[in-house]
Amino acid sequence: MLPRFGYMLNVLKTIERNVLHMFGHPPRELALVQIYEKQPTHPKKSFSIKDIVGDGFLLAVPKFRRTIEKRLKRKYGYPEYVWKMLVPKTNIKVCNECGHHHERGRLCEHCYKKVEIETKEIQAKIQEKLGNSPIEKDVIVLYEGENPPDTPKEFWNGKRIVEMKKERPQWFSKNLLQKSTQQPSDSTDVKPTDLA
Question: What global pTM score does this model have?
């Protein structure tokens, strides 16, 4: 292998001498020359995001459009996991008092509005009479035409009476304001007494 390589090298040198001899006397060997030019030094420019953005601004936008199936799943859910479709209610009943519809197991909203209004009136009356000081004593609410119950004086110790200047509503019985936990007694009277 080496003798062949040497032979080829000698042939190339001979061709080089004969061909280049026609154009004058070039140097005996060919060589690569690199010319080094010193580049002018520019001051380093500081990089900022403003160079990229310019006058506009970048937004994080999705690369692909969300498919209709995915949109509907996000909106309505998936039957096996969370199903958010509108399902008709079958637990609706009619109130016996006012005739409005409400869910079974819940208070009638229309009837409860009356209770809410009455409660707010009682609270306003208590605040008007007792002020903003904390109420540490029991409050007894009496409507027009009602007398305090005949009880011993010890019963009234530490209690305050608030009088409402109107008749007691029919649906608002006295036992609604009685405490559910009371001391056991030996009396044979059925509680609550004196109902409207």
Answer: 0.44
